[in-house]
């Protein structure tokens, strides 16, 4: 299954080289992304796409960019898009392809990271202090290696689902191995895990969760999703969510994770549960459960850092939209 991608400037076609993105181009892209989010309520999918593009970063890899992986847009290429950890993300790549076609000066890496930050902001989450101007990986040869992303069931062999990371079979040890390689610390691990307040797991993507639950069946009263602006959301039924209102970005993930009597149809992966089991993680998980403000403060800093891992900016300091 090949993916057709718009031509890139990097050495491919010098006579029709595309100009670098301007603030105006980026604002136009933001408008288009906001429309897609409003029409499709696909914010969680976009957040996962951006995270899986960025989260391949390995701070120990030295050498020519983009060897160390990260937010480079390389996830759009095979083989990376077909890695077990990336199940279902082809849908996000396809949804965003027309944005690139209409705005060729804006990189895929920026489009993916912007779609995630906007999804969180529009769902009631914190405003993230994003910068843009990322360069794109330009070929399949620049894909990040398989196995750098965390697996919800640590130690699973790489396969149809699964992250393929075999490092450490305990969930807390596994998370530290994987996130420390990105240069992220315990507070950032816990804050970023809080993104599971948003979205669902699907049997045909990660192999986890149920076909549907009373929160995701699209018909029952408990499955009604009210967006942060008070409107009822249309969504495709299916999967298991971590929270009852899975299209709102808040700190309820930590509340339900902590609550041993929470509805059994809500998802708790082993890498979620360890946030309250591991003594060091627990300090932050408890803090974020008790204060949404504390969660948002930590989350927005961690998300910004994640979104810039391995990125190369043009101009060097990036472009802000404010
Ligand atoms: C801590 C280690 C993590 C593990 C083991 C993990 C694992 C998973 C799994 C198995 C799914 C279900 C995918 C599917 O079936 O479609 C998922 C969904 C999701 N993950 Fe994570 N994840 C982790 C961290 C993160 C981080 C750091 C973020 C973002 C900052 C994130 C954002 C999401 C979102 C938004 C979804 C929902 C996607 C949707 O509804 O389509 N996750 N994650």
Let me know the average pLDDT.
Answer: 92
Strand order, main sheet: write it out: 1-2
Q: What is the CATH first-level class name of the largest domain?
A: Mainly Alpha
* Count of discrete alpha- or pi-helical segments spanning 4 or more residues: 10
Strand content: under 5%
InterPro entries: Ccp1-like (IPR044831), Haem_peroxidase (IPR002016), Haem_peroxidase_sf (IPR010255), Peroxidase_I (IPR002207), Peroxidases_AS (IPR019794), Peroxidases_heam-ligand_BS (IPR019793)
Pfam families: peroxidase
Protein name: Plant heme peroxidase family profile domain-containing protein
Region (Disordered): 139-172
Characterize the structure shown:
One of its GO terms (biological process) is cellular response to oxidative stress. Residues 139-172 are annotated as: Disordered. Keywords: Heme, Iron, Metal-binding, Oxidoreductase, Peroxidase. It is a single chain. By secondary structure, the chain is mostly helical. It has 2 domains: 14-169 and 304-308, Peroxidase, domain 1; 172-302, Orthogonal Bundle (Peroxidase, domain 2). Helix content is 38%, strand content 1%. The chain has helices at residues 23-40, 43-54, 89-102, 108-122, 171-182, 186-193, 252-258, 270-277, 279-290, 292-308, and strands spanning 200-201, 240-241. Helix 1 (23-40) packs across helix 4 (108-122). It is globular, with a radius of gyration of 19 Å. The termini are far apart. Residues 1-15 have low confidence and may be disordered. The chain binds protoporphyrin IX containing FE.
Topology at a glance:
Layout: H1 23-40, H2 43-54, H3 89-102, H4 108-122, H5 171-182, H6 186-193, E1 200-201, E2 240-241, H7 252-258, H8 270-277, H9 279-290, H10 292-308
Antiparallel strand pairs: 1-2
């Amino acid at each position: 299954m090949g993916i057709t991608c718009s031509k890139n400037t990097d050495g491919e076609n010098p006579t029709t080289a595309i100009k670098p993105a301007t603030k105006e181009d980026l604002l136009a892209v933001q408008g288009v992304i906001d429309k897609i989010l409003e029409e499709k309520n696909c914010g969680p999918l976009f957040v996962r796409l951006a995270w899986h593009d960025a989260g391949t970063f390995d701070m120990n890899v030295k050498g020519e960019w983009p060897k160390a992986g990260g937010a480079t847009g390389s996830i759009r290429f095979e083989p990376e898009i077909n890695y077990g950890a990336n199940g279902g993300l082809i849908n996000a790549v396809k949804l965003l392809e027309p944005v690139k076609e209409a705005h060729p000066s804006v990189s895929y890496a920026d489009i993916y990271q912007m779609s995630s930050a906007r999804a969180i902001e529009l769902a009631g989450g914190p405003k993230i202090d994003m910068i843009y101007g990322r360069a794109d990986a330009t070929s399949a040869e620049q894909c990040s290696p398989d196995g750098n992303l965390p697996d919800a069931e640590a130690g699973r062999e790489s396969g149809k689902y699964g992250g393929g990371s075999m490092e450490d079979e305990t969930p807390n040890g596994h998370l530290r191995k994987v996130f420390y390689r990105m240069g992220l610390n315990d507070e950032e691990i816990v804050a970023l895990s809080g993104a599971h307040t948003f979205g669902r797991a699907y049997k045909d993507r990660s192999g986890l969760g149920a076909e549907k639950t009373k929160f995701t069946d699209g018909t029952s009263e408990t499955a009604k999703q009210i967006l942060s602006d008070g409107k009822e959301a249309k969504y495709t039924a299916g999967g298991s969510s971590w929270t009852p209102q899975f299209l709102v970005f808040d700190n309820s993930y930590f509340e339900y994770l902590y609550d041993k009597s929470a509805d059994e149809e809500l998802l708790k992966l082993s890498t979620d549960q360890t946030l309250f089991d591991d003594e060091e993680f627990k300090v932050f998980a408890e803090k974020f459960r008790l204060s949404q403000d504390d969660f948002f403060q930590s989350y927005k800093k961690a998300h910004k850092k994640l979104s810039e891992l391995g990125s190369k900016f043009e101009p060097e300091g990036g472009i802000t939209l404010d």
